[in-house]
Amino acid sequence: MRYRPISPAVLAEELADRVDALTTRRIAVAVDGAAGATETAELADALVDPLRLRGRATLRVSARDFLRPASLRFEHGRTNPDVRYTDWLDLGALRREVLEPLKGSGEVLPSLWDAERDRATRAARVPLPEGGVVLVDGELLLGAGLAFDLAVHLWLSPAALRRRVPDAWAVPAYERYEEEVDPGTLADVVVRVDDPRHPALYLP
Q1: Model confidence pTM above 0.90
Q2: Residue 135: CB partners within 8 Å, gap ≥ 6?
Q3: Using CA atoms, how far apart are residues 157 and 160, in angstroms rounded to an integer?
Q4: 31-150-141 Cα angle (round to 5)
Q5: Could you give phi then psi for residue 81, rounded to 5 degrees?
Q6: Strands (E), 57-184
Q7: pLDDT tens column, 3-40
Q8: CA–CA separation, 178 vs 172, rounded Å?
Q9: What is the rounded CA–CA span in Å between residue 194 and residue 102?
Q10: Is the dihedral of CA 156, 162, 163, 164 positive or negative?
Q11: I need a labelling partner for 191 at 20 to 30 A (CA). Which of 23, 43, 161, 164 fits?
């Protein structure tokens, strides 16, 4: 596999160019990677200003704000990697409240559930004009039936994954994701982030 070293700033600019070139309609972009070990939110945040400078209205959404309630996530224990892999994210809500409105009303719900307080956020819908971009960051987003117009996967080598994931019990979930989904083959852009200060862009 060949990689091109790239600075975080240049990466954001190149991704913004690629997003801007896609289409003039509303679109959804995923930034996917292991939680706590890859800077998915930071990269998604870094795309906001470059896209707005290109005339694209931009809305940030975190998949963490679409987790299921604690009673469902922790029904089989708080450290069950299989449940984290299959049941933590409310895929139906993310599809219904964020992705599907892009093809219709443009009224997007930016958050649904506050996982820390374990209650609904009661957020108001945000109107996104034609040409707008929703940037969704989170873990295990690919291969789950969610329709993104562009998917970026932040990849870690197996050793870096085990070293950098803060919740060691969750590592099997990400290993299963790598084995069963192979997100690198589904993503439009793969970035190696063993050292987040020095990312490298995969060259197919």
Answers
A1: yes
A2: 29, 31, 44, 47, 48, 51, 58, 59, 60, 61
A3: 5
A4: 45
A5: -65, -30
A6: 58-62, 107-108, 113-114, 119-120, 126-127, 133-138, 150-155
A7: 999 999 999 999 999 999 998 899 999 999 999 999 99
A8: 10
A9: 34
A10: positive
A11: 23
Please provide the CATH number assigned to the domain covering 2-203.
3.40.50.300
| Tokens (6 digits) for 102 | 């892009």
DSSP state of 67: B
Residue with tokens 């679409």: 66
Q: What is the mean pLDDT of residues 45-59?
A: 98
Alpha carbon distance 85, 101 (integer Å): 26
* DSSP code string of 93-124: HHIIIIIGGGGTT-EE-S--EETTTTEE--PP
> What is d(CA 82, CA 88) in angstroms, rounded to the nearest whole number?
10
Task: Return the H-helix or E-strand segment holding 189.
Answer: strand 189-192
Are 115 and 66 in contact by the 8 Å Cβ rule? The answer is no
* Domain residue ranges in the chain: 2-203
